[in-house]
């Protein structure tokens, strides 16, 4: 069922011969679309960071697809680790750890099950081996702004009996990706629904992605900003995003000016205020829509399809 419909589609078992239904292709395409939409404060076309470019992101999107294609065979922990290894081999930097952590459980869900019902079963089956492999992946990715914590610090091997869901519970208050494991991917599914809702307002996919991103950022302080700049700065960013969402409809020059001003602000401190965790959740939401066939592709990314 294409983007722009609100009725929940019947679940269909994907045709393995159709590349639009491949889990790996859905993962790659979700990451490509997320990176290409001009979300404030993020790397996108024509807006690179020092040492981190748009090409790095699209290369990473291609690199992780084959890993997530094997997620049901490998399980969550190994899928995360192999996808991080593929990213490091391709670009030598961390472009997508949070996205990989979100996509891997979704990719493990059986193709004949809706994600809402299949995902809890995947999360319930996570075990200590998943924890060990995920901790190894995090150390390999070397995400920015990681501080020390008293329990289950990722710099060290985890306790041998610590299940991954337990490790995520320990991190949930300070990290929005970990929180998804605890709350059933609430923000991921909400963002997916918002992408659909934005399209019904006449927004092309690129603008729907930006608006859903702003809605998320307006409600949930970004974990990456919080780690790099502190919780007060993250809260200030959320307040600015909320003002854009509250004051403007997502069309017209005034809205675009407000989005541009927010983008300028987020880039004003050497890209330390990069809402990267919010971008990870958007990528996962796009995967949900692709995986459940709630969005058509190929699409005209910048204009609403008539």
How would you characterize the overall build of this protein?
There is one protein chain. With 306 residues, the chain is mainly α. The protein has a single domain (19-291), classed as Triphosphoribosyl-dephospho-CoA protein (Orthogonal Bundle), CATH 1.10.4200.10. It has 15 helices and no strands. It has helices spanning 23-36, 54-69, 71-74, 76-91, 97-108, 115-124, 128-141, 164-171, 176-183, 186-200, 205-219, 223-229, 231-247, 252-266, 276-291. Helix 4 runs parallel beside helix 7, helix 5 packs parallel to helix 15 and helix 13 runs antiparallel to helix 14. The longest helix is centred in the C-terminal third of the chain and has 17 residues, at 231-247. The radius of gyration is 18 Å and the shape is globular. Mean pLDDT is 90; it is low at 4-17.
Q: Summary?
A:
With 306 residues, the protein is mainly alpha-helical.
From the N-terminal CA to the C-terminal CA, the straight-line distance is: 15 Å
What radius of gyration results from the CA coordinates?
18 Å
Number of strands: 0
CATH superfamily placement: Triphosphoribosyl-dephospho-CoA protein
Could you give the order of the helices and strands?
Answer: HHHHHHHHHHHHHHH
The description of the largest β-sheet is:
none
Tell me the helix content.
Answer: 55-70%
């Amino acid at each position: 069922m294409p983007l722009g419909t609100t009725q929940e589609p019947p679940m269909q078992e994907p045709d393995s011969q159709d590349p639009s239904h491949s889990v790996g292709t859905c993962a790659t395409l979700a990451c490509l679309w997320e990176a290409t939409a001009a979300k404030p404060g993020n790397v996108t076309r024509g807006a690179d960071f020092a040492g981190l470019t748009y090409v790095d992101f699209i290369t990473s999107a291609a690199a992780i697809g084959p890993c997530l294609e094997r997620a049901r065979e490998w399980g969550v922990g190994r899928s995360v680790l192999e996808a991080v290894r593929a990213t490091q081999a391709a670009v030598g930097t961390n472009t997508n750890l949070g996205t990989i952590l979100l996509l891997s459980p979704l990719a493990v869900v059986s193709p004949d099950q809706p994600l809402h019902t299949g995902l809890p079963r995947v999360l319930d089956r996570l075990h200590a081996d998943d924890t060990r492999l995920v901790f190894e992946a995090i150390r390999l990715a070397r995400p920015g702004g990681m501080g020390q914590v008293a329990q289950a610090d990722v710099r060290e091997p985890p306790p041998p009996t610590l299940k991954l869901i337990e490790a995520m519970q320990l991190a949930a208050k300070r990290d929005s990706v970990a929180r998804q494991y605890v709350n059933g991917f609430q923000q991921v599914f909400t963002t997916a629904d918002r992408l659909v809702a934005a399209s019904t307002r006449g927004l092309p996919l690129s603008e729907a992605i930006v608006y859903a991103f702003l809605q998320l950022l307006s409600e949930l302080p970004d974990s990456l900003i919080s780690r790099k700049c502190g919780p007060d700065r993250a809260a200030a960013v959320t307040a600015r995003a909320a003002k854009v969402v509250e004051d403007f409809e997502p069309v017209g020059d005034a809205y675009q000016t407000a989005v541009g001003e927010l983008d300028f602000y987020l880039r004003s401190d050497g890209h330390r205020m990069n809402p990267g965790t919010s971008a990870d959740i958007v990528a996962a939401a796009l995967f949900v829509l692709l995986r459940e066939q709630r969005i058509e592709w190929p699409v005209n990314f910048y204009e609403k399809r008539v």
